[in-house]
## 1
Amino acid sequence: MTDEWKSPSKASADSGDDKSWKLLEKTLLAGVQEQRRSRRWGIFFKLLTFTYLLGVLAMLSPLVDLEKSATRGAHYTALIEVRGVIADKESSSADNLVSSLRAAFEDSKVKGVVLRINSPGGSPVQSGYVYDEIRRLRALHPDTKLYAVISDLGASGAYYIASAADQIYADKASLVGSIGVTAAGYGFVGTMEKLGVERRTYTSGEHKSFLDPFQPQKADETQFWQGVLDTTHRQFIASVKQGRGDRLKDKEHPELFSGLIWSGEQAMQLGLVDGLGSASSVARDVIGEKELVDFTVEESPFDRFSKKLGASVAEHLAMWMGFQGPTLR
């Protein structure tokens, strides 16, 4: 039997090594703790700075509005922008446009309203809401005229809205019209057959899945859907005729309601617009008040700043707190 034997000097050396390792371990742990403590304070001060900046922006936002109000003249022309797709939750939603219109018509200093349009159209429901509200406000405020001014594009639902105005103006090269309704989709029945894939759909209601692109079309369902589009088209045409009246040359040009689109110069000859001009020229020469005051409902600088930062705040907080996940670069 042999037992491992250590000399006193060897044992002393091992004990010294253990103490050195423990000391090194304590030093490393202290360093890690200090880094964590510094990181926490760093996060605190960064959040404090961020909160301070948001507070400053929130306070400055109303001051900017007050400054704009202070520079306005005794009378001015209200400007409302219709930009992009007309749809719920978009900048040109019915809610936003109706709020802008009401604010403009109820302002006693507004001499006239210019609705500046650059839109391909969108929802017939949203456009119909705005159309109806324009006609209601015009009836309530007969002395305040509303002029639609089409810049690059005033098509489909955008022209629907424009037709409610007292007059419509456009540039000679603007695109105007597209009085029609469309609904598009795809059919994948042949592709499914080639792939050997069987479509299984379970519904309650004979026609519940009639728009399913993976099932063959049925003649009666296609006819039904066409009827829905035709009804919507008739409603569109009726509104345009109500708004434009005898100015439309639809008897001489029945293609007006075919979905075609024309230049501003052609549209004037067809009665789709009343003249050529821009928002500033209409304000100056037609309304007689060249100062344009923007009544378009928009997000405040505070809201815009918050939204832009919102997408990255969580990521930055995670990085500061040491929770950054794996990334590929």
## 2
Amino acid sequence: MKAVLVCGSPRKNGNTQKILEIAQETLLMEGIDTELVLLSDATVHPCIGCLTCKKTRDMSCAIKEDDFHEIFGKMLNADAIVVGTPVYFGCATSQTTSLLHRAGYVARNNGNPLSGKIGAPVVVARRAGQNFTYAQLVFFYTISDMTVVGSSYWNVAFGKNPGEVLCDEEAVQTVKKCMKNIAALLQCRKKE
């Protein structure tokens, strides 16, 4: 069983990456193979709405000169997809939405291979906007026919300066619980 964690922050070693590293550690301790993908190390251009993915039906996007296909391939090969983003002006980062828009279009126009996968959002805010951003990510999972895993609270964390998110003890515990729930669900599915 494999989980891919996507960090939608344009900053390396920021709060979103830090909380996703905790998520990754938890999944690994639960026996789930994981990979953390940093969009700060990648270029994913926004969807241009050309619908080439619908015309070609070959699981590809018309935009070839970026890292989308590599990341999308990792999403397709994963059993669980955790997307984390900081809140920028009340919503997910443009890096995050560019990936999810293109992944959604390509998948939905090619038999929806994301269907049945497990997902969970993780959102980091300085002060506000986390609820809308959390819902924004949940909308991606649900329209993709994925199973959204919950926790003891929403996976939202607070922090401004790098590393501050680690002081949000409730968020750390909430994310850990969610990852344990993902691992348990993956183990149940493995037995089927």
## 3
Amino acid sequence: MTSKEYIEKTLVIFKPDAVQRGVVGEILARFERVGLKIVAMRMEMPTRDQYYEHYEDIGKMISRRGEAVFNSVLEFMLDGPVIVMVLEGVDAIDVVRKMVGSTEPKAAAIGTIRGDYSHISYGRADSEHKSTPNIIHASADASDAKKEIRHWFSESDIYDYEIPNEKFTR
């Protein structure tokens, strides 16, 4: 493999709880410190249809977790604006997943984003018929990353540029 083949793009969404708690900057700095580059980013208030495509058409959430969980996630995501971004770097998908930690905040290791910024269990959220506030979405794998990026961004929204530290991070 050539070094270019290791360069990946991945989608990250700062969920409404991250935006409303004011922790986006702290978390974004962690991605930049590890050497990932922001190549697309914007704040928006997505529609139910946009989330349906993201969570069901791409993520197959209803078949994986059921309609009740899907509906609670949609309700949670519609609670406020989100910041949607594409990060690029060496093995970016795996690096971001590792940094983000387990999807269930209670199970996320301290030092991961979810471990440091959230703690609610699935059981607690389910008992209140709510979605689990877990700060951030990150693409699960290369296939999902490609689909998710195409869903949220056009090619003209994604920038190709160099940053000074690339000689150390690529």
